[in-house]
Amino acid sequence: MKNPDRRQVIGWASAAAVASQFPAAAQDGLSLAEKVGRMLLLGFIGSRPDTTGADIIADHLSERRIGGVLFLRHNVRSREGAEGLAARFRAIDAKAWMAIDQEGGLVQRLSRDLGYSWIPRASQVVEERGLDGARELYALAAQEFRAAGFNMNLAPVADLHDPENAVIGRHGRSYGTTGQDVAAYAWAFIEAFEAEGSVCVIKHFPGHGHSRGDSHDGFVDISETWSYEELDPFRRLVEADVARCIMGGHLINRDLDPSGLPATFSSAMIDDLLRKRLEFKGVVMTDDLDMAAIRENYDQREAVLRSIEAGNDIIMLSNSARPDPELPQRIVGWVEEAIDQGRFDEARIDRSVARINALGAG
């Protein structure tokens, strides 16, 4: 992979410059509750700005209890509803993340049924458009994304293709079988969205492509199917200084962590492998802690605290399985107790907040 050209560097610098609105040092002036809130990406129930769920999120944003809002499929029933929700939330906190999956193919929440341009699945982009066509396609998608009021795309996929994989391969969500090909197309995707001022979240570390299960349904053990080549797309994007935010998967890999903890809770995979060995300096985000893999094996308190202990910076909770209007306040209480008990200290929270602030938003 070649080094970025001057146009790319300028684009990234422009996106990163937004961080000056909320500089890394500013966490010193925040209360612990506000710092914890900055780490929370929270979902809600409702698909219109005038729903109770939207009111709850609006209150959390105004009180700085959350750092961003997660939109899922059930939140996007109409173009007017989705854009109205994003506009309402941005009016309260212009720096908050408006996050949604806009990957393409099967995973495109702002869909053509609602009047947005169709984004073909990754494999189709490679086969029919090539890299130059991908750049044109993603440039248009990125413009529509920003115009709709969103600034965090939970994409692209950096997993390798395996036709036997039911989650990635079967749906054509991967750009190829080699790290070089996957990284090249993921780079084109990221470049387009960053040029419009949005942040991309690369997924699913340490590699979901050769798995034989779906973490929406339960833990996925990749110990027997995973290989080190699955790190290659992530490594290339990190080395090229393209990766700013990476999402870990609810994936168990006993070769990487003999304890059997999923990547979400594994300091061996996050701190040791991703941060130290791959030298990733950006933000690490959990996948949704409300997914069955986590929800059916850990209570919510323990899931949140283990995620923080492992080194995650943004904690994603759809809050849809058992909606709790006071979840952010409860999480603050859990973190305060954990600090008092010595599980981690406030400096651990400060490091995450500094990395999140460096991402910028706007």
Shape: globular
Rg result: 19 Å
Number of distinct helices: 13
Query: Within the largest sheet, what's the order of strands?
Result: 7-6-3-2-1-13
Low-confidence stretches: 1-26
N-to-C CA distance: 30 Å
Helical percentage: 40-55%
Order of helices and strands: HHEHEHEEEHHEHEEEHEEHEHHEHH
Would you report the number of β strands?
Answer: 13
- Largest β sheet strand count, sense and barrel closure: 6 strands, parallel
Structural class comes to alpha/beta
Tell me, rounded to a whole number, the average pLDDT: 92
Instruction: Estimate the strand proportion.
Output: 5-15%
Brief digest:
By secondary structure, the chain is α/β, with parallel strands linked by helices. It has helices at 6-17, 32-38, 52-62, 79-92, 122-128, 130-147, 179-195, 232-239, 267-277, 292-295, 300-310, 327-341, 346-359, and strands spanning 40-42, 68-71, 97-100, 102-104, 107-108, 152-153, 199-200, 202-205, 220-221, 245-248, 251-252, 283-285, 315-317. The protein contains 13 helices and 13 strands.
